[in-house]
Amino acid sequence: MLLAQLLGLYFIIVGVLVLYRQKSVMPALTQLSNNRPLIIVIGFVELLAGLAVVLTYPALTMDWMGLISVIGWMLIVEGIIYLALPYGKVHKMIRSFNTPTWFRAGSLLAIVIGAYLAGIGFGFIQ
Asked: What's this model's pTM, rounded to 2 decimal places?
């Protein structure tokens, strides 16, 4: 339940902030994509976090625990992409997702997933 609470609140807060501050976040992501060492560090951190989540919730089921497992696998895949692909391809990939449409869609999806996980974690949803 702790991870459902933690990820739920995190997704809600980040989703709302990114939606609200999109014009500030997009240029920051552009600057991040220009920083090769930072991308490598983020890749290692995402890989570590993803492994921790997947080892805690390994089952891919059709419930909230499966959703947490999918989030963990997404972190692992993104971490490996950042570490394994050449810098130019990673930079191009980040640029392709750095659009207002992706930010709005991602923010709204994060809020919905966050509300679901927080609802489960805090007992509002059974």
From this structure: 0.91
C-beta separation of 12 from 111 below 8 A: yes
**Mean pLDDT calculated for residue range 66-79:** 97
Q: Give the Å distances, CA to CA, from 28 to 34, 42, 97, 117, 126.
A: 10, 14, 13, 28, 39
- Whether 110 shows a pLDDT value over 90: the answer reads yes
What span, in angstroms and rounded, lies between the C-alpha atoms of 123 and 110?
19
In the chain, what's the furthest Cα-to-Cα distance? 45
Cβ pair 46, 78 in contact under 8 A:
yes
Q: What is the mean pLDDT of residues 87-115?
A: 95
Decide: 55 and 30 in contact? Cβ < 8 Å: no
Least Cα distance to 87 among 32, 25, 27, 45 occurs for 32
